[in-house]
Amino acid sequence: MVCIGVHVSIAGGLDRAVDRAVERHCDLFQIFSRSPRGWSSKDLSPDDVERFQTKMKASGMALAVDHMPYLPNLASPKEEVYSRSVDLLTAELNRCQWLNLPYLVTHLGSHLGSGWETGKKRIVDALDVALSAANRDVMLLLENTSGTKNSMGSSFEEIAAIIDAVGTGSARLGVCLDTCHLFAAGYDLRTKGDLRETLEQFDHSVGLDRLKLLHLNDSRGTLGSRLDRHEHIGLGEIGVGGFREILQDEFLRNLPMILETPVDKRRDDAGNLKAVRALASY
């Protein structure tokens, strides 16, 4: 039985996210613990934390995951943006601790033309600072990218190089693989053989023990297109066959999975959850 959920809103209070996940019949869920489009947020109050944790315990949810906001760029050569990004990452790790969330997912950012090596050093320094300054019980999951211009972390080798360069905090680093980003970056998932080859490459470069979470999204772009456009499960270029292989894989089916699929006239969250569960039980 797969453990699957969606990203839900915290509008009206963090605890309302639990209600929304329950309404959608999720096994787990993902949130932004603050506005995803701003730098600042009000501090969590003891009441906020208590309401969230009380509802989590009552819900029977297996897990909740936090995601970093959009604005931070851990690879930025711009000093003000970089400094604020490191501060926000540190703060978000601490928020996860208070909320009892085991994972924080982060994008690695863009080097904005400064080059891979410069961007890598910025990311590694940011991770070293944040992991040292924040509470030590939360694992930071590095999310792969689709390979858009100047982006960091679109290949397994890049992710491995960043993890390997981090100091004592590296034990607290894991990986979240987004299936849309994987496919757009050139990693095929459409057949059992393609999937096994991709997982073998990941294991060789990073190690399957680092893989803690899947973002389950189909892709509007073709293989290697570098197009970051999510599609409904089975309706994109990865297709029904690809997701059947992913959801039947002995290793992957035991990982927690979060849908970040569109909500439109064709299908909503409930429809994508139903599609995933049908393929998982095929």
Please, could you describe this protein's structure?
With 282 residues, the chain is of the alpha/beta class. The chain has a single domain, classed as TIM Barrel. Helices cover 41% and strands 16% of the residues. It has an eight-stranded parallel β-barrel with strand order 1-2-3-4-5-6-7-10. A two-stranded antiparallel ribbon has the order 8-9. It is globular and about 45 Å long.
Q: What portion of residues is helical? A: 40-55%
* Order of adjacent strands in the largest pleated sheet: 1-2-3-4-5-6-7-10
Q: Tally the beta strands.
A: 10
CATH topology: TIM Barrel
Oligomer: single chain
Strand content: 15-25%
The H/E string reads EHEHEHEHEHEHHEEEHEH
The CATH superfamily title? Divalent-metal-dependent TIM barrel enzymes
Which short descriptors sum up this protein?
single chain, 282 residues, alpha/beta, TIM Barrel, eight-stranded parallel β-barrel, two-stranded antiparallel sheet, 16% strand, globular
Summarize the entry for a quick read.
The chain contains nine helices and ten strands.
Spell out the blueprint of helices and strands.
Layout: E1 3-7, H1 14-23, E2 28-31, H2 46-59, E3 63-67, H3 79-99, E4 103-107, H4 116-133, E5 139-143, H5 156-165, E6 173-178, H6 179-184, H7 192-205, E7 211-216, E8 218-219, E9 230-231, H8 239-248, E10 256-259, H9 269-280
Parallel strand pairs: 1-2, 1-10, 2-3, 3-4, 4-5, 5-6, 6-7, 7-10
Antiparallel strand pairs: 8-9
Helix pairs in contact: 1-2, 3-4, 4-5
